[in-house]
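Subgroup meeting minutes
Present: P.N., E.W., G.H.
Scribe: E.W.

1. P.N. recapped why we're keeping a running log of single-chain structure predictions: easier to compare across weeks, and new members can see raw inputs and outputs side by side.
2. G.H. added today's entry (309 aa).
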Amino acid sequence: MSSYLFIVNPIARNGEIGKMWSNVENEIKKQNFDYSVEFTKEPLHAIDIAKTKGKDFDVIVATGGDGTVNEVANGVFEIDGTFGVLPLGNGNDFAFGHKYDRDYRRSLDILRKEVTLDLGVGIAQTEEDKRYFVNIVDTGVGAAISVSSFTDAKWLKGFVKYYYLALKGIAKYRVVPSKIRIDDHDEFKTDLVIMAVGFGNRFGGGFNVFPDNYGFMDDFAICIAGDVGKMYQFYLLNVLKPGKHIGKKGVRYLRGRKMSVEVEKPLPVEVEGEIVSYGATNIEFEIAPRRLKTIVSQELVDLQKEKSI
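Output recorded in log:
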């Protein structure tokens, strides 16, 4: 029987995880896990727990939202361990985008079955920090919205919260002249509204920025919106939710393995719910040299086989 380390962020989901944890743990016991629990106490603590204590377990489980996923994945990647997710946060974009279940009981069942895929890992580098990512990184208005989410509209959750903050954020946002290079292609310029890079398909509590994109693919997806006016930005926000933005005016949908971005005005950079820079002017993304062994649902494995035919 495999051993599991659940790294729990008790303040995720506006503090509700700490309150509901006893019920979750009862279900873990009911499903006969061999497990231990560690609670995070501060930002980045989950990385340290995964690196220092994860070596003693077969599976290390990020228990919380997308920020917890990012931190635990960073630690697990460092020790080349096996990664799992118990989605209990607000957005859960990585988990739901990769076919985990909204009911934590069924997600526990996915963890217990230990079906795995090697999923892609990216590296996001700014002047201030370097961070691995497994879902989506963004800058521009999206990251500015994420910054505001830590202090504004705390009474809202998930997609509703992000949509409300997105409306406010777009109203205040001013486009930023930017220069972008993907792989070895020629550099191009745009007045940047938003740029996202990633292996998953959704962010912001359910905005389908990369329809049909999954971490088992060989490169990452890139979406860049720019050179459009304010009212059109509101329009793009509404077609982004169902993934209908591709092919619209001002939207580039690309793929790559390496990317550099230079902006004239400092912008925040969000990595899966974590702000790694509040004012970057040079940002680089690239595929990490190896993948992350991740417990996934059988549905995702079947989808991978279907797409490889």
